[in-house]
């Protein structure tokens, strides 16, 4: 049975968008990984940011670098910030799990968003990644370090996270034509994030 908190992720961020804006670090501790991602994307490049939130600071970093960005998020309240700050980019209110834009991108990123999905939904996301990619496309996402569910808290409410085992992610990536370029579990230089960088090769 699905954990009840897993069903509330989009509602949680919708209700607490203002708090997210107030609390989200803009120190860009992710920069080294974002630069590796952009080196794989190439330039000029089109990026799909899944679970983009307010667009700041990650999408903002890409936009400042001259990349064309499509941001997807399930929370309209979060997207309102992105649209106000970056009106020239494309912002879509959609659930990433059902995404079917009918186009491919040079880079796909799901940073601190993919790991809010259930394990079953994470497995299904690799088909979504594949249909929005072409040979050479970069894919980067964050996960947990091992198989399981981890509960956090945001604004006093339970915050769901889940992860597959590393070998499961490697198998899913390979099955959908991606080659792992780099993976680091609980990177101490990146706030303890577990990061995957892959490229579509088939």
UniProtKB/TrEMBL annotation:
GO terms for molecular function: methyltransferase activity. Keywords: Methyltransferase, Transferase. Coiled coil: none annotated. Residues 47-136 form the Methyltransferase domain. One of its GO terms (biological process) is methylation. InterPro entries: Methyltransf_25, SAM-dependent_MTases_sf. CDD domains: AdoMet_MTases. This is Class I SAM-dependent methyltransferase. It comes from Kluyvera genomosp. 3. The lineage of its organism: Bacteria, Pseudomonadati, Pseudomonadota, Gammaproteobacteria, Enterobacterales.
